[in-house]
């Protein structure tokens, strides 16, 4: 048990590094601070040109860097934009960008500090997994850490260096699936069966999304984040269509893995408790389990993509677009292809997993019969 404790601590450190390592390395100019006093607030000021807004004057105590302990007097302007405006209260923890002026140091608030609360949430998540799952929970944490590191330290950097997002996503998905299954179940017939089902499902999801994106002229350019990628400070021309296809693969990976390992584990348990069961019996049992899982997991995928697109759906409904106009909008088409391709891949994983696992579990008996 001791070695698993060491592993869990190690993977926790890797998770923190994966989430925050690059952020802190690239954000040295941003200092932590705490709002200690609201000096004054001027509301409904006229800025001319029909613009009005509110101005807030406050003091911030710097809590990191060479200026730690110093008090800065800052101001903040709000124009009534709920998305981008900030409005502070005493006690708020913030990030500030500091610069030197003739009168000393000044700066402005960049954003709230959120990493503290996210770290607390992460610790709670890890503790619950370990308490409920014990050794298997620790293995789940290790596999999660490996997946996060593969994405943040390999997939994303390789894409930014100009490698194909589509093929890099496929390789990342394969590596993540293989490592996760080996960590959780070891190199067994159950693992090989689940791996085969996952790969079949992902390959089908990738093939369908690739084909439909070409036929439907889906470029993958949708949303502010994608548009911002067009202006990255790099000479690399990102393949946005490949990025969309890679997103389909990564998005479907979790659900397909879940279905495959559930079916494979069920078949393994059935074989353990009924050693004389035939290949056909195991296969049909796996299919029945898969059918029960299929409905909920397909809903999970579709609801996840719908939830991500909910603001866009509200806008479309508010402006009363027709169904024909709506379904032909690229960002709707993108989410539709993601949901459908992922769901088809998930469904295809069911017979592939059941067939492979049932064969591996009964191959010795089948050879004896021959």
TrEMBL record:
TM segment ranges: 116-133, 140-160, 166-187, 194-218, 238-263, 301-319, 339-361
Residues forming coiled coils: none
Keywords assigned by UniProt, alphabetized: Membrane, Transmembrane, Transmembrane helix
Highest taxon, organism lineage: Bacteria
Name of the protein: Membrane protein
Organism: Acetoanaerobium pronyense
